[in-house]
Structure formats: C-alpha cells, structure tokens
Amino acid sequence: MGTSPGGGLTRALREALRRWATRRGGRLAVAFSGGCDSAALGSLCVEEAGGGGAQGARPPPVALVVDHGLRPEARGEAARALALARSLGLEARLLRASPGGRSLPQGLQQRWARSERYRLLAGACQDLGVGTLLTGHHADDQVETFLLRLAAGSGLEGLAAMPEASWLLGGSAGPLSLEPAQESKQFAFPVEPGNGSPPSAAPLPRLLLLRPLLGARKRDLESLCRARSVEWVADPTNADQMASRRNAVRAVLARAETAGRPAPHDDILRVIKACAEDRDEIRAQAAAAVSAALDGNVPEWGLGVRAGSLEFYPAAVLREPEPVALRALAEMLRAVSPPPPARFPLEAPRATRSSALRGLLRALQRGVPFCAGGCELRPSPRPGHPALLRPLRPPRRARTRASPHSVVPLARTPSRPPCHAPA
Asked: What pTM value is reported for the model?
C-alpha cells in the first residue's frame, strides 16, 4: 500500500475518516488488543491527529483494551496493551469481561469472547460519547472470512465479507447486531433490523464500526510497526490451529505462502469486491422497491397502518428482478417479525430460508395467502389494492412448535383461512 512504511496506510485511514467519521462528529475510539493490527492503527491515528488531517482539531482516539479473562496470562497481556497504547500517545481504558465465559466449553469460548468484547466496547463508547469505533481488521482477515463463509455455503451477502463500515446496533431490550453501513440511506424502515422493539425501548445510539485498513496485508502492518519501533503484544491463541476454524484457515494460507505458492489474496479480494458491489446494487434497488410498495407511507413504528403489520402494494415488488424482489420481501419480513437472536450477540440470526422467500414471492404473484419468516401474507382480493403482512400467531391447539422461519401451515378456523403453498 505504498513504497514507504505507512504511506499508503495513512492515506487509507485519512480517506476512511473523511468518508465516515468526519461527517458524524463526536469522539473516536480504537479497539486496542495490543497486537500488530491495533498497534499500527493506533500509531497511524496519533500521527493523523497530530498532523491535523481528516480529524481536524480532534484529539487522538481513546484506546479501549478488553481483558476477556479466559487465560491466566490475559491480565498481564491487557496491562502490556494499556502500556503500549499510552506509549503511542493514546488515552487508554481497560474493560474487564464478565467471568461467564470461563465455564463454557473451549469451542464456544471464542464466540462468547467476540460477543462480550463488542458489548463492552459499545457500552464504553456510549459512556465516553464516542460515535466511531475503529478496528484493525485487514485484508488477511477479509480473505479468511470469505473462505470460512464459502465453506459454510453462504450466499452473496456472506461472500461480500466485512464492509468498511458497519452500524453497531442494540439496546436494553434487544441484542447487539451489525449492519453494513452505506453512505446513502438504504431502507426507509424506522425500526432497526435485529431490534423489533418500539422507540419506547430506548435503544443505544448507533455506533459506527469503521475498518479503515481492509485493503492492507498483515505484513504491511508488521512492517509499519517495525519501522516505528513499536513492539506489539503477541496473542498465543492466534497461533493455535485447534483453537478456531479461522486459525486453521490462517495456517493453511501461511503454509502456502511459505512454500512459494502464489498467494490467493488479491484474487479473493477482487471476488469480495464484486460480491459487495452486487450486494449494494441489489440493496439499493430493493430499497426503491420497498419505498414504492409502501407508497411513501412510513409510520412511526411497525411500518404498517395496523400495529405490528405492514400494508404494501405488491406490484412494486413483482415488477423487479427476482433477486431484488426476494431482498425486498426479506427486509419486510424482518421488519414485521425480526428473526430470533443467535445464541451469542453479533452472530448472524437465523435467516428466512430462501425456499420460503421464493414461496412467498410465488404466492404474491398468484394472489394467495402464504406463511413464511414468522409472518402471514394476506393478499387483497381486489386487484391494485395493498396486501397485508402480519406476524404469525399459531393456533393454541397446535401440538408441535415449528420454527418461525420455515413454511408453517395454519389450522382451518372460521376466523383464519389456511395458508396455501403455491406449486
């Protein structure tokens, strides 16, 4: 990312701050583990603040160090990270995780640690008046994420990997969630995805999670630290291939590069970029379709004319290509009936199955009732009139409890005709 150590990295940070943080205002924070990633980012932030760059008169960001407490060495590593952050010229704060993760099986501890880390970071940012949290994620992380999601069978959304900026959402009544941020408004929904609570639930203000170094290789960050005599703190768990699937993928990639084989990073990053562009285009077209389907009518809460329901004009969705129509329907389903949270916050909740979404689209085309994604579709018998999408409430006599994100047939009752699954 440049011929001199830090030259391209400085430009990347400056451009990311200009695109996102400068317009938001407020204080900046850095998620600081003391590793070479966060150490390089902290050093760059101090340099940028001292040079009066994109941050203007802002002070350097505050470094937030999390002690997960999962290993006996964690306390000492956190202390060294605090000392390193202060030596760089950053104000540093220590955040201690709850002891709950220690009793979990080893396979779940990393998942718990990530959720606990972001919970603590979000709380500290709220207390300190921070509007933007910077992380040291880099291109190697991006490639690992892509490969892990490819192996898991992810679609376009997953293969787009990490965006440069995400909203960290959450509140007292709902779990934390991450949503890709866009420079232009994507959806007219006033309800934040992943938090189906009304405004009275007092959600936390949106926190922007910014990853300014996604275009840099890890070796670029190590070179920067060496050039500036920054001695980072090494986390031994990152070298343990058995600790996580990500570590195993990282080891395979490292062995390939050590053996002199061509690194796949540049090719994979191009695929990620193409996936992200396609995803954003589909989202933008789906946003326009949703806006047209709502006919500009966006109530204060619940989106629908009736409480907790959504009335929309099907024609605005049906005239779009199938990927756009499916995305629009998925967003409307999620607004009316948010998916159940995952076991750990920030993990992707269980999405509505693509087969259920396609069934919903076919039902909309045929004008018949259908149930999917925890919602019931009620088309209007009169052409040109709005359809109704409302939360699904199974009959009390139901003996089995079906997943809210699968196709659910309704019992025949006088007050509710059955939902039909179109062929």
From this structure: 0.77
